[in-house]
Amino acid sequence: xxxxxxxxxxxxxxxxxxxxxxxxxxxxxxxxxxxxxxxxxxxxxxxxxxxxxxxxxxxxxxxxxxxxxxxxxxxxxxxxxxxxxxxxxxxxxxxxxxxxxxxxxxxxxxxxxxxxxxxxxxxxxxxxxxxxxxxxxxxxxxxxxxxxxxxxxxxxxxxxxxxxxxxxxxxxxxx
Amino acid sequence: xxxxxxxxxxxxxxxxxxxxxxxxxxxxxxxxxxxxxxxxxxxxxxxxxxxxxxxxxxxxxxxxxxxxxxxxxxxxxxxxxxxxxxxxxxxxxxxxxxxxxxxxxxxxxxxxxxxxxxxxxxxxxxxxxxxxxxxxxxxxxxxxxxxxxxxxxxxxxxxxxxxxxxxxxxxxxxxxxxxxxxxxxxxxxxxxxxxxxxxxxxxxxxxxxxxxxxxxxxxxxxxxxxxxxxxxxxxxxxxxxxxxxxxxxxxxxxxxxxxxxxxxxxxxxxxxxxxxxxxxxxxxxxxxxxxxxxxxxxxxxxxxxxxxxxxxxxxxxxxxxxxxxxxxxxxxxxxxxxxxxxxxxxxxxxxxxxxxxxxxxxxx
Lengths: 175, 364
Prior knowledge:
- The complex is a heterodimer of chains A (175) and B (364).
- Chain A contains four helices and two strands; from the N terminus they run H-H-H-E-E-H.
- Chain A is mainly alpha-helical.
- Chain A has one domain.
- In chain A, a hairpin with a 3-residue loop joins strand 1 and strand 2.
- Chain B is an alpha+beta fold and 364 residues long.
- Chain B has one domain: Beta Barrel (Catalase HpII,  Chain A, domain 1).
- Chain B contains seven helices and 14 strands.
- In chain B, the strands form three sheets. In chain B, strands 3, 4, 5, 6, 9, 10, 11, 12, 13 and 14 form a ten-stranded antiparallel β-sheet that branches. In chain B, strands 1-2 form a two-stranded antiparallel sheet. A two-stranded antiparallel sheet of chain B has the order 7-8.
- In chain B, a hairpin with a 2-residue loop joins strand 1 and strand 2.
């Protein structure tokens, strides 16, 4: 094969890997934080700060997604798998947007300010309401485990395509 | 290599080799082990396990006090209050926090008794709590959860947990096991010393004449950026009505009756520490000659039964701080924040039953 595999634009690849690193770190920080006593307060500050950074990046990513065509999928991808890929991409975008917003709303509903970067206080985006807090708090955990599952499936599928079918799937997103 | 002819491996139209299948599955397996292993480790599902987690505390409170769905794990019995803080501006020399500018800040709060039983009979020697949230729910809010003690009994999360378990009441005697308590005190000399300090200041007759202290040290930061170690106390400006003895709610009922007659006031005293004063150990008192600044007056005007939307639903986390107040490295602060959060999450999802203190049922 001499033709170069089609790739996403550089800006898209950068946004993808940046969110990948941040979200993976964020999930681990979140799970660690809620089991921690001594580092809890510090980790909460880090968690909220990275959360708001991820929200900003994902908003840019969503807008960016409409600025270019997607490189062609390899010929190994069948019709049904194509539907799965579109579905998982939509799910990932939705959860990546929803998770930081749910976290922000959940803290708002508990009546405390969201403080990021040490001292920047974000406005409230939900009314003070303990019942609402609980629903959002549960949703935050459900979305976290959903992210773990969807990311695991996403990476596994790319690895199988790239290493087993040798269709250069991964190179669409590499540098 | 000569092998018997086999049907070539494929996935749809894509030819596969045994080698490529093994490599692909191996890579997926390795990735999933690392990925899900990290998730499991972070969740404390695998590995040696951290000594103390918030779950350890929640389970500890349940062991000692039983299950009381919908209530706080500690300081379960309480009543909601609201009022105002009138700042005289003196606090500005220490902190740039908005609450210390001359003027008024609304306050919502909660009086409570220590322990995880929401129906416990009021005991004069049970530690009394006052949680306050200034400017709730604004971005500039300040929350504090205080006690009517001179110092805090513990200087570590482990110490608090060990004392909690040692104080479990033995049903046959109605008291904690003396052997467990003396073993605990032998292992925790800091608590033994703190109890001596606490006993030198016996409790007052009621909630209204108690001094409530933050006990942990915080750093106040002023407009010039100067950081000062501070401990604070709310000093009562009235005597308390005597607690009635023929009821389970003697202390609370006296408070309700007294507040029907008019507001109660406390002065906020900010005690200024020196560099050498213990900042990370709340069992150690500061020298009595430390300078105190009178920062203003807290006036509590209304008292109401715990209900949706009032102090019942506020987590008096001591780390909800405005710009101008910063935590010290006292390890209890993060521990309190973590355990309070676990208690808050649990109780907000549980069905509610009426609180023991029903303000409108208190006879006048």
